[in-house]
Automatic annotation (TrEMBL):
All copies of domain Acyl-CoA dehydrogenase/oxidase N-terminal, residue ranges: 41-157
Cofactor: FAD
Recorded superkingdom: Bacteria
Protein task: Involved in the assimilation of dimethylsulphoniopropionate (DMSP), an important compound in the fixation of carbon in marine phytoplankton, by mediating the conversion of 3-(methylthio)propanoyl-CoA (MMPA-CoA) to 3-(methylthio)acryloyl-CoA (MTA-CoA).
InterPro entries per UniProt: Acyl-CoA_dh-like_C_dom, Acyl-CoA_Oxase/DH_mid-dom, Acyl-CoA_Oxase/DH_mid-dom_sf, AcylCo_DH-like_C, AcylCo_DH/oxidase_C, AcylCoA_DH/ox_N, AcylCoA_DH/ox_N_sf, AcylCoA_DH/oxidase_NM_dom_sf
Keyword Chloroplast: no
Record field: catalytic activity: 3-(methylsulfanyl)propanoyl-CoA + oxidized [electron-transfer flavoprotein] + H(+) = 3-(methylsulfanyl)acryloyl-CoA + reduced [electron-transfer flavoprotein]
Record-level Gene Ontology MF annotations: flavin adenine dinucleotide binding; oxidoreductase activity, acting on the CH-CH group of donors
EC class of the enzyme, as a word: oxidoreductase
Organism in which the protein naturally occurs: Exilibacterium tricleocarpae
Signal peptide as annotated in the record: none
Pfam families on file: Acyl-CoA_dh_1, Acyl-CoA_dh_C, Acyl-CoA_dh_M, Acyl-CoA_dh_N
Name of the protein: 3-methylmercaptopropionyl-CoA dehydrogenase
């Protein structure tokens, strides 16, 4: 059974037929080089690397895991060599600034590549993925010297990066972090403290690791307003720019965890390690938030990646596995039984995965367009509009896609029956690997508070209206198109309901702030289902137009229209339950005394 096949046809559909990426790149300053030919060639080349090099290492990574020995971490067989190939092919530098050795291609292109890398082998992909976070921080906030010393090495891929936020007593609540930064006479800082759960925090794939660390200066105010950001390299740079002496940071242990075994999740002990301040003192969290949207889209991709991988494998299996006869008479009369794809329930599971994977792809690519526009659009007004849209869509993409991605991965396993539970098929690994996506980069609960509290209610619904207006315009444009009616009528109704629900929650929250927390995850899921409905309606309109033109690729477009129909008739009605639970209010959660949960 194949491990992973890059879905290039569907990627092209989402990019060029649904989202107009050709015009997007031509009209966005600095993105013009990304012509359709260039993008296609890059996607094809990356697809080969993902299919032939990374995908075969996915099970190896899971079974071998990383090994820790006295502070040294060895990655699974083949990981290091794959990374060397990745660097030699120039992939790390693709979307970074040419001033630091990058190729200057649009950020959105990096997101497309991350999808393929992540679907082929999520654990491996996290090593270069974390480096991008460090590179973006340095690009936005580093001094020229810091960029010259660290960024160029990261862009080249010679060094990798990490993001060190979490400590044993503080995960979500970073205001409590304790790691200290004491100023030294030479302008550097001595960093001391313990960070936990640091992905790619120690490994053997590159000669140096650049840790981006949150810590407190001695006179810092308490809480989140007293956090600063530091570069702490594993090896201090030598005079010639190479990795020099060891710095005072060691990996105390690695975690034994449910999934992503190929990625080292490290306890890092900083013991007077030399660090360098990035950005202004006490503004560390603000600096991080400047690229948080892009990083969270990176995690949203994980939902898509595991949905796609599970879908591919379970579809192949469902076409081959013979069990029982179709209820409506044999479909494979010469065989001992029919392939399980004839059974309605197996189709439910396959179509759910397909709807989430392909719908999620459109949502992520749309968000990727906003990343480009928020950075490069001609006018300040356009950049702000894109940024507003991105800030609304980011918690939805991150939390909703990882939740439904997990549901999809689980259904992929279910299609295999008992064989799904057995290691050899890779389906149980897919479920285990997927689970972390709802936890890191802000749990679903925290993303939901961000969406409803910060993004929607605190802007008096302004950012939400940017998106709902777009959906409204699309629905208006489809008026009179009878074939689109089954999609447009429910979409328009739910789009209006989204605003009404927001007003309702805003109203009850004036009386009781807990109403926001009580509604938030259901509200986020409601928002996700409506957002995906918009993209599926767009896809259906494109596919119907192609079918009307008599386009040769009929089977592809018919499959799009049928999947949209499935989504609207079998997935979107979940919004009705969510509306009911949202309106049920906070009382059913809060009235029970904490002491009375169990006796
Ligand atoms: C494999 C792995 C890799 C990771 N990689 C990194 C990394 O590279 N760098 C890094 O810095 N960190 C990393 N993390 C840490 C990760 O980001 C945190 O685990 C996450 O932020 C949650 O923090 P916590 O585990 O302390 O949970 P807690 O903050 O203790 O939360 C526990 C529960 O309470 C809920 N909760 C907390 N506050 C609220 C609230 N106000 N309202 C509603 N619910 C709330 C949460 O949603 C959660 O369900 C990683 C973690 C893992 C497991």
């Amino acid at each position: 059974m194949s491990d992973y096949k890059a879905p290039l046809r569907d990627m092209h559909f989402a990019l060029y037929e649904v989202l107009g990426f050709e015009q997007h790149y031509q009209n966005t300053p600095g993105c013009e080089e990304a012509s359709t030919d260039v993008v296609s060639a890059i996607l094809e080349e990356n697809a080969k690397f993902c299919e032939n090099v990374l995908a075969p290492l996915n099970a190896v990574g899971d079974q071998e895991g990383c090994q820790w020995n006295d502070g040294v971490v060895t990655t699974p067989t083949g990981f290091k060599e794959a990374y060397q190939q990745y660097v030699e092919a120039g992939w790390p530098s693709m979307t970074h600034d040419s001033a630091h050795g990058g190729q200057g291609l649009p950020h959105s292109l990096g997101i497309l590549l991350s999808e393929m890398v992540g679907s082929a082998n999520w654990s491996w992909g996290m090593y270069p993925g974390l480096s991008h976070g460090a590179m973006n921080t340095l690009s936005a906030h580093g001094t020229d010297d810091q960029k010259q010393t660290y960024l160029t090495k990261l862009v080249e891929g010679a060094w990798t990066g990490t993001m060190c936020l979490t400590e044993p007593h503080c995960g979500t609540d970073l205001g409590m972090l304790r790691t200290k930064a004491e100023p030294n006479a030479d302008g550097s800082y001595s960093i001391s403290g313990t960070k936990i759960f640091i992905s790619a925090g120690e490994h053997d794939m590159a000669e140096n690791i650049v840790h981006i660390v949150l810590a407190r200066l001695p006179d810092a105010p308490a809480g989140t307003k007293g956090i600063s950001l530091f570069i702490v390299p594993k090896h201090l740079p030598a005079g010639d720019g190479s990795a020099g002496d060891r710095n005072g940071v060691v990996c105390g242990s690695i975690e034994h965890k449910m999934g992503i075994h190929g990625n080292a999740t490290c306890v890092l002990n900083f013991d007077g390690a030399r660090g360098y301040l990035i950005g202004p003192p006490n503004r560390g969290l603000n600096c991080m938030f400047t690229f948080m949207n892009a990083a969270r889209i990176g995690t949203a991709i994980q939902g898509l990646a595991h949905a796609e991988l599970g879908f591919q494998k379970s579809l192949e299996y469902a076409r081959e596995r013979l069990q029982m006869r179709s209820l409506s008479g044999p479909k494979n009369p010469d065989g001992a039984a029919d392939p399980i794809i004839v059974h309605p329930d197996v189709r439910r599971m396959l179509l759910t995965q397909k709807a989430f994977a392909e719908g999620g792809r459109m949502l992520i690519y749309f968000a990727a367009q906003q990343v480009d526009r928020s950075e490069h659009a001609e006018s300040e007004e356009d950049r702000k509009a894109a940024d507003d849209l991105l800030s609304l869509l980011t918690p939805i993409a991150k939390a909703f896609l990882t939740e439904v991605g997990f549901e999809a991965a689980n259904l992929g396993l279910q299609c295999f029956g008992g064989h799904g539970f057995i290691q050899e098929w890779g389906m149980e690994q897919n479920v285990r690997d997927c689970r972390i996506a709802m936890l890191y980069e802000g749990t679903t609960g925290i993303q939901a508070l961000d969406l409803l509290g910060r993004k929607v209610l605190m802007t008096q619904g302004e950012t939400l209206r940017v998106f709902t207006k777009m959906v409204h315009k699309f629905c208006q444009a489809q008026e009179g198109n009878a074939e689109m009616e089954p999609f447009i009528a429910p979409l328009a109704e739910l789009n209006a309901k989204w605003g009404e629900l927001t007003l309702h929650i805003g109203g009850v929250a004036l009386e009781n702030p807990d109403e926001v927390g009580a509604a938030s995850v259901d509200y986020l899921m409601f928002s996700g289902y409506v957002t995906l409905a918009y993209f599926w309606a767009l896809a259906a309109s494109v596919a119907q137009a192609k079918l009307a033109e008599g386009d040769g690729d009929r089977a592809f477009y018919e499959s799009k229209v049928q999947t949209a129909r499935f989504y609207f008739q079998r997935i979107l009605p979940r919004t009705q339950t969510l509306e009911t639970t949202i309106k049920s209010g906070a009382g059913n959660l809060m009235d029970l005394d904490a002491e009375a949960f169990a006796f």
